[in-house]
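Figure S4 source data
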Amino acid sequence: MTTKLTVTRPGALTTIQDAGRPGHAHLGVPRSGALDAPSMDLANRLLGNPEGAAVLETSLTGCALRPDADITVVIGGAPCPVTVNGRPAPWGTPVRVPAGATLDAGPATAGIRTYVAIAGGIAADPVLGSRSTDLLSGLGPAPLAQGDLIPVARTTRTAPPALPVAPPWPAPPAELVLPARFGPRADWFTDTARRTFLSAAYSVSVHSNRIGLRTEGPALERATEGELPSEGMVLGAVQVPPDGRPVVFLHDHPTTGGYPVIAVVEEEALAAAAQAVPGTPVRFAPC
């Protein structure tokens, strides 16, 4: 019989995520997947789950679940208080949750996105090879709502694997440094704008989401007026809309766009962007 989790508190935004669905941009389908993939991967490893097993990604306020059978979970990513039936439980290491108990991952105390991994992984129906929720296209499971039932895949593991002394959870950034390479439309901006891009102090905007990290700071002046025909967009593309403030595309980004892309951020740096709270200083660095 399949174990199910009842959502008793969905939080501000909780979605099912895995490694995403790369390779479908030609169909207009974004990659999606966990924004902080290293945290998802570590949570799965601590449970002995298969690589890329689906987890829950919560934003800021956490979520609460009630299983109908005993489960083992790891809650990692953004630190948060964890309780089982109201009693404190450890964050970042495996926790046993009895059938009928309420597991609560509370509001993040640092960072933004907390990951709830369950032994066996979440068994939502895959779409194009992934169980990820895509907020832009609407593919995959809908964001969690109160009363939803989430199926859990069966696992033959009876105990979690041996733990390191202290699992190496990455800390949310005090300053977000994003290594970036100019192009493909850097020539649409003035020399001053390109210097500003690599030297100015920006900060994370409250309007950031899974589609893109928006910034506050000096506007970048164009050398070329007008608009581009829509062209392909990649993960990490730094698009500059008419207000001149850079937007870094994250996993649910559109696959095409008409605003010029001044640079592209290295993918390895984007996990930190997933945990950067509004107001975090942002600096673009040449690479």
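Figure S5 source data
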Amino acid sequence: MSRPEYIPLSDEAARAVAGAASRHAALIEDAFNVLIETPGGGVSINGDAKSRAGAKQVVAALAAQADSGREVSEADVRVAIGAARAGTGKSPAGGLPSSRRGQVAPRTPGQVRYLDSLNTCELVFGLGPAGTGKTFLAVAHGAGLLLRGEVDRLIVSRPAVEAGERLGFLPGDMNEKVDPYMAPVWEALTDIIGAEQLRRRREKGEIEVAPIAFLRGRTLSHAFIIIDEAQNTTRLQMKMVLTRIGEGSRMAVTGDPSQIDLVNAADSGLAHAVGLLEGVQGVGVNRFSVEDVVRHPMVERIVRAYDADAAKSGRAI
């Protein structure tokens, strides 16, 4: 190998790059065929010039994350490695706001690709099992656009399948009728922008609750629109929703095709829309797998078990 290259780091950054039992350093070594040592005050990278360049990019990304006060996990290391290999050199956060738990950032390669689509496409589909962050990241992205003034409104919608969309029979005003179905979105927004700012922006109409049925006939301009649990929209509802996009607007459509609650599962509009629109200019389709599950590890094991049973029986869940 060529002469080692030494990179000075803060103590916190050096510990983050090394990881517990040098696990993080080992991942970087395996990815770029380099040797990493931590002699104190930084890291030493030994390898050829190209390999060192990739490893240095990963070290720099992890050091910046650690120095900003954010915890560096093994998932963060893998994301940084993927970004270095792809030659993007982009910050994994992608302009996302900070939540109460720190800077929001993708934690898997699949999430990185999803955020890249949200940044570059007018219409983005996020498909996959529970716990993959598809809704949370869409909400964080939309909140970031709103806070930076890049859109005027953040509109969230989710089909109220259990109520048959006949929300008039439920007590309260429109927000009170729909909020039980929107709980995951509101929890994410509260985490990202805080309860008080969420309340103020809802009162000003900058963040809007919009049941699927209430979108009909509207043109949604200069807005970021999130359609959550989209597997429970019908084909007609999906066509109606997608054609609401107006000037200066973007849309994220999220859902799990294996969790359809409609009486007639074949009427689900999500898979139908993806089949029609995948490959169309301005449309991004991102499919998450169990490897992208970032909730409790038990969620990944549960998803794997159900997928295995579905594959064995030859039926969809």
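The mean pLDDT is 83. The radius of gyration is 22 Å.
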